[in-house]
Amino acid sequence: MSKQCKLILALDLPDKESALDMLKKLQGSLEWVKIGLQMYLKYGADFVRQVGEMGFKVFLDLKLYDIPNTVASAVKSLEGLPVSMLTIHTSGGAEMMKAALNAAKETNKEMQILGVTVLTSFDEDSMRATGFDRTLSEQVLKLAKLAEESGLSGLVCSPLEIELLRKNLKSEMDLITPGIRPAGSDSNEQKRIMTPSLAAKTGSSYIVVGRPILKAENPAEAAKAIIKELKDAK
Ligand SMILES: O=c1ccn([C@@H]2O[C@H](COP(=O)(O)O)[C@@H](O)[C@H]2O)c(=O)[nH]1
């Protein structure tokens, strides 16, 4: 039986007070919180600690992309922080991914390194505009295989690529999918989207949702509705 797909709330908010207020309302129903560049650059390690101390698992979405030594050193700088998932870009290459993994093993064995494939804001046109001749699916698969060969156990991709990856990867990698939009909600700049229930049915391990929750009239209720949608998805 496949594992239950879980919600990760993307905590992309302008200030700590509203973020903590939101999290208090979700304690007990939500397990995972994603801290991205917006909050990390403003509040740093203390905020990560605070969210961890509230009982949430932290996904730190820094999308590291640099030479191997710099990425490894950045991973080591997270020592002592309650980070359960951390993102790096797979396009940084095998050497960089291996360096990140080794650094994580030395620093925090609980921290899973996730490889971002192609951002969900990309479509075929934006791929070509950045100089890639492959189709989006080909590029995602190429990077996913490279990540698998480099030893990563989790990937960030769009829900539209789940079937392709499940069919073509050798291992049962965790697939973390942003680009999630409940039926009828604004897609914003996300190009490769799917509803929570369909993503769960298709085989997503975790869905990442930000604005459809954060901008809802009642964010806590919107999050709880998505959690229920995931539980009901068969
Ligand atoms: O390919 C990617 C990788 C990461 N993200 C992040 O997920 C959330 C999505 O937020 P929404 O408001 O639900 O669009 C955001 O933090 C992104 O940085 C992504 O969207 N796509």
Automatic annotation (TrEMBL):
InterPro entries: Aldolase_TIM, OMPdecase, OMPdecase_AS, OMPdecase_bac, OMPdeCOase_dom, RibuloseP-bd_barrel. Its EC number is 4.1.1.23. Pfam families: OMPdecase (PF00215). One of its GO terms (molecular function) is orotidine-5'-phosphate decarboxylase activity. Keywords: Decarboxylase, Lyase, Pyrimidine biosynthesis. The active site is at K63 (proton donor). It catalyses: orotidine 5'-phosphate + H(+) = UMP + CO2. SMART domains: OMPdecase. SUPFAM superfamilies: Ribulose-phoshate binding barrel (SSF51366). It is an enzyme of class 4 (lyase). Homodimer. Catalyzes the decarboxylation of orotidine 5'-monophosphate (OMP) to uridine 5'-monophosphate (UMP). This is Orotidine 5'-phosphate decarboxylase.
